[in-house]
Amino acid sequence: MSPAPRAAQRPAAGAxxxxxxxxxxxxxxxxxxxxxxxxxxxxxxxxxxxxxxxELTSLDASHYTAGALGMVASPSLFSxxxxxxxxxxxxxxDDFLVDALAYIKDPAPDVTLVLTHGGGTRGKxxxxxLKALGAPRVECQPLKKxxxxxxxxxxxxxxxxxxxxxxxxxxxxxxxxxxxxxxxxACSQLIADTTGMVSSDDVDKYYGGRxxxxxxxxxxxxxAGNAPVALSTLRHALATGVDxxxxxxxLAMKVRQVAKVFSLRGSSAQLARxxxxxxxxxxxxxxxxxxxxxxxxxxxxxxxxxxxxxxxGAAKDPVYAVERAVIVIATSARx
Length: 335
Description:
Blueprint: E1 14-15, E2 25-29, H1 33-50, E3 55-60, H2 68-73, E4 82-87, H3 94-105, E5 111-117, H4 124-133, E6 137-139, H5 146-159, H6 166-176, H7 180-193, H8 200-207, H9 211-223, H10 227-239, H11 244-261, H12 268-275, H13 279-289, H14 294-314, H15 318-332
Helix pairs in contact: 3-4, 5-6, 5-7, 6-8, 6-9, 9-10, 9-11, 9-15, 10-15, 11-13, 11-14, 11-15, 12-13, 14-15
């Protein structure tokens, strides 16, 4: 097997976690464990494609003792290529810092060292040295915006050569978007268990009972001015144990989106870029905005601010607070 390509001696550019370049040393930086694990999977698959006899070793930098890195990186009897994964750099020992700084100056041949740092400034000297050497750096940051999560879902389906419609993407993010690993698992399940274009009905069949999905059904009905459906869905959710907090959060998110697009003109793609939303979210918010006036939006924002405080402890009856918010919003919208 030819050795892994040496990192260029220049400042490292950010590497895509879906396609990590092979190099003697790779840094995975950030707190999102799922992205880090995907990056490691990609590196491992590429190395195994070059040589199936790849030897895997794991080290914990927070419990590291001097000399361990040099020992595991030394050539084995049959000279198999090695992948060494080092976790917990954010709490690395002083011994690891010393050994790692020495190692990266002259990495062992046929060895790929993957360093996982959860974030922060611990080991800054090592981070700066890796940057100076040009080691690939993969940012492992949480996907916080719905637009980012929607892009993730679309990419998962594209990778599997499957299609999912925009409303189904929205429904899936609403149902399981709080956790990236759960979102990836949900994509895998839908890809495995369905055929053809995945629709919002498919998503509802598998994940419609999730708290987030229920909350967004309440919000969708309220923003559309459909008070009977909004209230019946809300009361069913509350009766089955859904907490008022995510219900108010879903309402607030929907109202904020309507407020963002309310008086704006332009293409969905342009507004999506400007507002940090997906084009389908812009389209949905524009449809909802047709039910609203500026004055009614002010009323909705005020009642949601009150409800948010009340469901988080400012009132004795959070259920009444969320019911009142739904009623005010649904009756303020034009049918």
